[in-house]
Design goal:
The structure holds two protein chains of two kinds.
Chain A (H helix, E strand, L loop, with lengths): L1 H22 L4 H16 L11 H25 L3 H5 L10 H6 L2 H11 L3 H12 L4 H8 L3 H23 L1
Helix pairs in contact in A: 1-2, 1-3, 1-7, 2-3, 3-8, 6-9, 7-8, 7-9, 8-9
Chain B lengths: L6 H16 L4 H14 L1 H27 L26 H5 L15
Classes of the chains: A mainly alpha, B mainly alpha.
Chain lengths: ~170, ~110
């Protein structure tokens, strides 16, 4: 059972890392931390798959929740200096790390910059649909929003992204 | 769900996915690092537990001290009389006539007038 779960996670690993990167604003260190914490939740049974969605959707949802928790902890650390004693070391600052940014090709660097200027929800929905090849309904489940809201974010996000990419090319 | 005119976005995201995939850390290393961090975590868990215990102990000490020293916050409801700001609306003209018994006798009735 655990071996099956590990094998399934290994199959999804690249997609999961890409999603973790997106959830952490392309900060590689933060994405690795979030992915590790998510895998622990899944492997230790703290996050259980109940079959209500596809396994892929479920795993991406766990990563999204873990990233949100990490952001909340990070915000708490900023407000309460002593909280770092309880919450452990901080890894993310929510910005792409310079090494990753430098290594990107021009076209993808433009895309990452443009995505960074979209609202969080629009970025999530577009990433899930175009990068992870999910349907809008599946993206709504992962993002934790209604189908109608996901559709709105998808349409507005696409329009905004095209505009931003156009501006970047000029 | 992706429309035909979204081909440009699809292509851009595919390039991004290829780049990210090239830099993905190996799965076994990710799980091993996660396990190693978990093994190091009991320190934090113990610290969290200690903080909760300290908070509970503080509450117990303070409540015990207050009980022993007779420091109690009591509100005697019998001494509190509250009047609604709209009470005056309940007062009718001539209300006192309805609440008092008419006087009969030497003071209330002048026999000479009968």
């Amino acid at each position: 059972m655990a071996a099956d779960l590990t094998a399934e996670l290994e199959q999804l690993h690249a997609a999961a890392f890409g999603w973790a990167l997106s959830c952490c604003g392309w900060d590689r260190t933060a994405a690795e931390d979030v992915l590790q914490a998510s895998y622990l939740k899944l492997l230790d049974g703290r996050a259980r798959f109940d079959g209500r969605s596809s396994f892929r959707t479920f795993v991406l949802g766990v990563i999204a929740r873990t990233a949100r928790e990490a952001r909340r902890r990070s915000a708490l650390r900023r407000w309460l200096p002593l909280a770092s004693l309880m919450l452990g070391p901080e890894a993310e600052d929510g910005r792409p790390d310079p090494a990753t940014a430098l290594a990107r090709a021009d076209e993808t660097a433009r895309l990452v910059r443009a995505l960074g200027r979209l609202s969080g929800r629009q970025r999530q929905v577009l990433h899930l649909v175009f990068y992870e090849d999910l349907t809008i309904a599946e993206a709504a489940v992962v993002a934790g929003v209604s189908l109608g809201t996901a559709r709105t974010h998808y349409e507005r996000g696409k329009a905004a992204l095209r505009k931003l990419l156009g501006e970047e090319r000029e | 769900m992706i429309e035909r005119d979204d081909h440009d976005l699809r292509k851009s995201f595919a390039a991004l996915r290829r780049e990210d995939a090239a830099g993905t850390p190996p799965f076994p290393a990710t799980v091993a690092t996660a396990r190693a961090r978990e093994a190091a975590a009991p320190g934090h868990r113990a610290l969290r537990l200690a903080a909760v215990l300290v908070a509970v102990a503080a509450v117990v000490v303070v409540s015990t001290w207050r009980e022993r020293n007779g420091v109690r916050l009591e509100i005697d409801l019998a001494t509190v009389r509250w009047h609604a700001p709209t009470d005056f609306l309940l007062k009718l003209p001539g209300d006192e006539l309805l609440r008092s018994v008419p006087q009969l006798g030497p003071r209330g009735l002048d026999r000479r007038t009968l």
